[in-house]
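Q: Sequence in, structure out?
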Amino acid sequence: MNELTSKQRKTLSAMANGLNPVVIVGGAGVTSNLEEQVLNCLNDHELIKVKFNEFKDQKAELSKSIAEKCNAALVRVIGNVAIFYKESDDPDKRQIVLEKQ
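A: Exactly. Output:
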Protein backbone atom coordinates (compact mmCIF):
# COMPACT_ATOMS: atom_id res chain seq x y z
CA MET A 1 0.00 0.00 0.00
CA ASN A 2 1.31 3.43 -0.87
CA GLU A 3 1.89 5.83 1.98
CA LEU A 4 -0.95 8.29 2.51
CA THR A 5 -0.40 12.03 2.40
CA SER A 6 -1.51 14.16 5.33
CA LYS A 7 -4.40 15.51 3.23
CA GLN A 8 -5.56 11.97 2.42
CA ARG A 9 -5.26 10.98 6.10
CA LYS A 10 -7.35 13.98 7.09
CA THR A 11 -10.02 13.14 4.48
CA LEU A 12 -10.19 9.47 5.51
CA SER A 13 -10.22 10.34 9.20
CA ALA A 14 -13.19 12.66 8.63
CA MET A 15 -15.00 9.97 6.63
CA ALA A 16 -14.43 7.45 9.44
CA ASN A 17 -15.95 9.78 12.02
CA GLY A 18 -19.43 8.29 11.73
CA LEU A 19 -18.29 4.66 11.49
CA ASN A 20 -18.58 2.15 14.30
CA PRO A 21 -15.75 -0.32 14.95
CA VAL A 22 -16.31 -3.55 13.01
CA VAL A 23 -13.49 -5.56 14.62
CA ILE A 24 -12.63 -5.68 18.32
CA VAL A 25 -9.28 -6.78 19.75
CA GLY A 26 -10.03 -8.74 22.90
CA GLY A 27 -8.20 -10.99 25.29
CA ALA A 28 -6.88 -13.29 22.55
CA GLY A 29 -4.98 -10.37 20.99
CA VAL A 30 -4.12 -10.08 17.32
CA THR A 31 -4.50 -13.58 15.94
CA SER A 32 -4.52 -14.81 12.35
CA ASN A 33 -8.32 -15.04 12.59
CA LEU A 34 -8.52 -11.38 13.62
CA GLU A 35 -6.23 -10.36 10.77
CA GLU A 36 -8.39 -12.35 8.35
CA GLN A 37 -11.50 -10.64 9.71
CA VAL A 38 -9.88 -7.22 9.24
CA LEU A 39 -8.92 -8.11 5.67
CA ASN A 40 -12.45 -9.32 4.87
CA CYS A 41 -13.94 -6.12 6.30
CA LEU A 42 -11.48 -3.99 4.33
CA ASN A 43 -12.40 -5.85 1.14
CA ASP A 44 -16.07 -5.12 1.82
CA HIS A 45 -15.83 -1.54 3.10
CA GLU A 46 -12.37 -0.10 2.25
CA LEU A 47 -12.40 2.05 5.42
CA ILE A 48 -12.87 0.47 8.85
CA LYS A 49 -12.30 1.00 12.55
CA VAL A 50 -10.74 -1.55 14.90
CA LYS A 51 -11.29 -1.09 18.63
CA PHE A 52 -8.79 -2.24 21.25
CA ASN A 53 -10.59 -3.50 24.37
CA GLU A 54 -7.37 -5.23 25.47
CA PHE A 55 -3.67 -4.64 24.69
CA LYS A 56 -4.25 -0.88 24.82
CA ASP A 57 -0.61 -0.22 25.69
CA GLN A 58 0.48 -1.98 22.49
CA LYS A 59 -2.15 -0.58 20.13
CA ALA A 60 0.28 1.45 18.01
CA GLU A 61 2.59 -1.49 17.32
CA LEU A 62 -0.28 -3.93 16.83
CA SER A 63 -2.03 -1.53 14.44
CA LYS A 64 1.11 -1.23 12.31
CA SER A 65 1.41 -5.01 12.27
CA ILE A 66 -2.22 -5.44 11.19
CA ALA A 67 -1.76 -2.86 8.42
CA GLU A 68 1.35 -4.63 7.09
CA LYS A 69 -0.23 -8.08 7.12
CA CYS A 70 -3.40 -6.83 5.43
CA ASN A 71 -1.51 -4.62 2.95
CA ALA A 72 -3.57 -1.68 4.19
CA ALA A 73 -2.80 1.86 5.30
CA LEU A 74 -3.04 2.78 8.94
CA VAL A 75 -4.86 6.11 8.73
CA ARG A 76 -4.75 7.04 12.40
CA VAL A 77 -4.96 5.73 15.94
CA ILE A 78 -7.29 7.83 18.07
CA GLY A 79 -7.82 6.76 21.66
CA ASN A 80 -8.27 2.99 21.58
CA VAL A 81 -9.50 2.91 17.98
CA ALA A 82 -7.39 2.39 14.85
CA ILE A 83 -8.60 3.44 11.40
CA PHE A 84 -7.51 1.36 8.39
CA TYR A 85 -7.93 1.96 4.66
CA LYS A 86 -7.40 -0.37 1.73
CA GLU A 87 -8.49 0.51 -1.77
CA SER A 88 -10.64 -2.16 -3.37
CA ASP A 89 -8.95 -4.29 -6.02
CA ASP A 90 -12.16 -4.24 -8.06
CA PRO A 91 -12.70 -0.80 -9.66
CA ASP A 92 -16.47 -1.39 -9.70
CA LYS A 93 -16.55 -1.84 -5.90
CA ARG A 94 -14.52 1.27 -5.03
CA GLN A 95 -16.46 3.54 -2.74
CA ILE A 96 -13.68 5.98 -1.85
CA VAL A 97 -11.67 7.89 -4.41
CA LEU A 98 -8.70 9.76 -3.00
CA GLU A 99 -7.05 12.63 -4.78
CA LYS A 100 -3.59 11.67 -5.96
CA GLN A 101 -0.97 14.00 -4.56
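The chain has a mean pLDDT of 91.
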